[in-house]
Amino acid sequence: MVIPAMEPPAGYQSNFNNPNRAMYYICIVSNAIAMPICSIFVILRLWIRYRLSMQLQADDSTFRHACNLSHMLTRVYSCLYPWILLKYGGGLHQWDVPDDLMSQYHQTVYATMVNYGPTVFAIKAAILLFLVRIFSPYKTYVKWIHGFLGFMAVYYVVMLFLKIFICRPIPMFWGATSDGKCLNQRALILTDNIISLLSDILILLLPCPLTKKLHLGIKAKLKIIAVFGMGGLACIFSLIRLVFIIKDGKTPDQTYKFIQINLTGIAECGIGVVCACLPLMPMLWKSILHNDKPGYSSNARSQFEMMNSSQKRSQNAARNQTSIHHIEAADSDENILITPGKSYITTKVGGRDDITDGGSAGGDSAGLRASLDQTRIYRTVEFHQYEQR
């Protein structure tokens, strides 16, 4: 005789052959939609970086690793664990689940609970590291971000330790033994979700003060708002998760309610991964439409001097230095997030005495000698940009 994991409430009977599988199928469909979307955004981000930049700076490498780690942990949290939960009765009412499956079910719940913290932290770290790159000229602001990131790291390490040792001995969590002691699971999870919601809101609001200071057109500002405003959806799902925990945290029907709560966590993590990749999507669209790369930084300048063959070495060095400057500008997250405007070129031609190398350009040059053999003729090309509105 099959024993149910929970006595059915009044008016209900255990049904092991044909139980209510509504939440079960919702979980399957949600994962089937969420995981491919997250994977597509991560792959597109890596492709954009390779296609448009062709190089990675040290700080971007850290951001890239954080983004990839968050995607990997999200796949484990949002795909692997739910499938195991469903295998052992997740998504079904607990009175429709055989009692002998509950030990494996609670082991998977334990693994899911432990994995949630590192997953969320990796996502938040990826977003914060991107903010550091975007607003790097604001040193005080960057220090605050680093401080907040350090605080979150300490918090999640402590919370990870508490979750791992929520029961002593650990097997007591899934009922392998009754001789031991456990922390209050509901209080621990509730505290963790409150902190997670507050940090989500703070990360959402962090760019707002500095975005106002940017001298951009309406179109560019709307683009930035859309990129960072996506994080508002993560806050909404985090809030819904908190409401579910407060409302249903004490219900004995854990196989059904935990899957419901876990779906909001999957949505929160999935949106976080998309937010970490989203700032580069406008550049993908521009590349598809115009087949070009990020432009030069404003007022970029390169000089090409007309000189004899003995002076070509210095000319090549100047061009190489200019080329490096342009590549760095193309790799800048400011140029990727805020697409550079159109360019126009001005050219100045002037003379400079070989003896007076420190002379200024154009008409301010030292007086020309009678013989051109003693004079350098040079041309200065200036690239200017004006913003698209």
TrEMBL record:
Keywords: Membrane, Transmembrane, Transmembrane helix. Residues 44-285 form the Rhodopsin domain. It comes from the Eukaryota. It is a multi-pass membrane protein. The keyword Glycoprotein does not apply. It is found in: Membrane. Pfam families: Fung_rhodopsin. The keyword Transmembrane helix applies. One of its GO terms (cellular component) is membrane. The chain crosses the membrane at residues 22-48, 109-132, 144-166, 186-210, 222-246, 258-281. Belongs to the SAT4 family. This is Integral membrane protein. It comes from Fusarium beomiforme.
